[in-house]
Amino acid sequence: MRLTALLFFLVPFHIFATSSPPAALESMEKELDFIQYHMEVNYAPAEWKYTHSGWDLATKIEEAKADLRAAPNLSFSYYHQTLRRFFDSTHDYHVKAFFSASGIAYLPLELLKAGNRYFVVSTLIPEIDAGDEVVACDGVSMETVIERLVQRRSGIRSESDYAEAIREFSLRNAAEGVALPDEDEVILSLLSKRTGSPYQTKVEWIKIEEEMPGYRSPLVKAASPSIPNILMMRGLDALRPQRANTPFALGSRTSYLPPLGDVVKQLESPSFDAYIFKDPRGRKIGYLRIATYSPEEDTAAEDFQRLINQMERETHALVIDQINNPGGYVTHLYGLLSMLTDRPLYVPSQTFYVTPDFAKTSVLVARALEEIFVMGTEQDIEEILGFESFGFPLLPEHYADVYDFFKMVGDEWAAGNRVLPSIYLYGISKIPPHPKGRYSKPIVVLINEQDYSSADFFPAILQDNKRATLFGVKTAGAGGAIGVNALNSPYGVVAFSSTFSLAHRLDGQVIEDLGVTPDVVHELTVNDIQYNFVDYRRDLMKTLNSLLK
User: Fold this and answer.
1) Where would you tag: which of 297, 410, 435, 462 has the fewest CB atoms within 10 A of its CB?
2) How many distinct helices (H) and strands (E) make up the chain?
3) At what angle do helices 378-385 and 356-375 cross, to 10 degrees?
4) Residue 79 lies in a domain
5) Are residues 334 and 417 in the same domain?
6) Do 309 and 454 share a domain, yes or no?
7) Rg, Å, the chain Cα set
């Protein structure tokens, strides 16, 4: 097992079971008690959440219990929705439940927000064109419809919450604890981009009916035995089931942005969309999209290095597009960052809540490294740690830091200390420049409200070290490591995830909730959505001009 799969993807298995089939409500309340206990001892941002927004774990658990007690007909579906509301109340995009439900319903269109208006950006409905504005659904204004969806979540109303609500408007997934629509269709009121005229059309929900027995029916006694836990985590992209991969989906290989200029060279790559374009002044600018930090190809780091070396030779500046990036492996983002600098980049420290699995793994890794230091080779160290496969240049001077990190975690656990403040992941406080490839010229990073987790860390590190200019809108603010905990409930709750670290930037500010604010703010405009992102590209060119003076 490689080190790089550990922190964001630890899967401690805690299975809740009862010795006899109690009444459904009593059993569900016990499950909530278990979740409360787990979060009391493992949820790192709890104190920050209380300070920042007044969120209190015990209060929210009691509210969830009261919701269940008031239910006229307790069902799988109702219980799942109650848990969804509880986890959403944290306003933590890492915290959620996973349900053994199969029902899905979606409308064959996607929307983007400009101000308080909502526009179709992709559609399979012949009567609707991309660029048309949706003004109402079933007679209710779209502003109200989306506000209600936001309020059902945390109610904090961040731009990331609006993006999640827009997604939920047209995609309902029971596995996420979302209620499926009872109706078969909606009536949308729209304004035509082409004519400016209002019109209405019926849009049918495309449904995959629920196949789990008893999902909607009332419960009296405990349900059938729980299903096996088959959840496999790879990052937030795995947490968010989606429709077919369109340029507007999280983690899409291609961006929804059009070419940023006259493309003079499309660069071949199995892992990244990349090209070189000319700006209006004839300068060559590189474009490289990082869609996720969970690469599907083993050669992604080598591919990035090759592209970066070519960009270094042929361009005056580089635009990195990580719009709608769901996050992934921290070692991969460290590896990519090492190729974007000619000086060390300092990284956030983190406060860790040590779980038993984290402690056990740390002891095993430290023991293995001790043996390798005595009789092994550098290749053996890489085989254990796996850093190079993600592009991170693990140098001999790092070996002691990595070993000390894992030894310290094990020792602190043995001493009864479960909270480790202000330490560096893997003992690495700064990212060294990569010895085989690096970009030394100006960089602009495109960010938005659907950049999560590692996609918060990537721009934060670049901004803290004054290495890049950030353009767009604030990232989501999912600022810590994620653990997944099996529940295997008889009521269809497979597992839940929570955050067991809290990251602090160089100035001490947390990433959680606050996200990363761009240096140059550009919120999407109506012109952007309807006319090929004309305002976005204009303002981006202004930013590049200011860097290339």
Assistant:
1) 435
2) 15, 24
3) 170
4) no
5) no
6) yes
7) 24
Neighbour order of strands in the sheet with 96-99:
96-99, 493-499, 482-486
Q: DSSP labels for 31-43?
A: HHHHHHHHHHHH-
C-alpha distance from residue 287 to each of 265, 304, 332 (Å): 10, 12, 19
- Which tokens go with 46? 């709890």
**139 lies in which domain range?**
104-211
Last residue of a domain, one of 380, 405, 424: 424
pLDDT of residue 17: 32
Are residues 165 and 289 both part of a single domain? no
The verdict on 307 and 406 lying in the same domain is no
Cα separation, 198 vs 332, whole angstroms: 48
Residue 449 lies in a domain: yes
Number of domains observed in the structure of the chain: 3
pLDDT tens profile 34-55: 999 999 999 999 999 999 999 9
112: phi then psi, degrees, rounded to nearest 5: -130, 155
Please give the pLDDT value at position 3: 45
C-alpha–C-alpha distance, residues 540 and 545, integer Å: 9
In a domain, 15, yes or no: no
Locate 426 and state its tokens. 């893997």
Co-location of 131 and 205 in the same domain: yes
381 with 403, same domain: the answer is: yes
- Token digits for 267? 């660069």
Give which of 215, 239, 265 is closest to 491, Cα–Cα. Answer: 215
- Exposed (0-12), middle (13-18) or buried (19+): which is 292, by Cβ within 10 Å? buried
Q: Are 414 and 377 part of one and the same domain?
A: yes
- C-alpha pair distances (Å), 194 with each of 198, 536, 548: 11, 21, 38
Axis-axis angle for helices 76-88, 24-42 (nearest 10): 20
Full-prediction pTM beyond 0.85?
Answer: yes
Kindly state whether residues 340 and 452 are assigned to the same domain. yes
- pLDDT, position 291: 97
**Which residue's entry shows tokens 């999640």?**
164
Residue 198 sits in a domain whose CATH number is: 2.30.42.10
CA 111, CA 248: separation in Å to the nearest integer?
A: 9
Question: Which residue positions in the chain have pLDDT lower than 50?
Answer: 1-22, 219-243
CA 475 – CA 510 distance, rounded (Å): 13
Phi, psi of 526 (to 5 degrees): -60, -40
Question: Is 59 a domain residue?
Answer: no
The CATH number assigned to the domain holding 448 equals 3.90.226.10
The CA distance from 374 to 139, in Å, is 73
Comparing CA positions, the residue from 43, 45, 35, 30 lying closest to residue 14 is: 35
Q: Give the pLDDT of residue 310.
A: 98
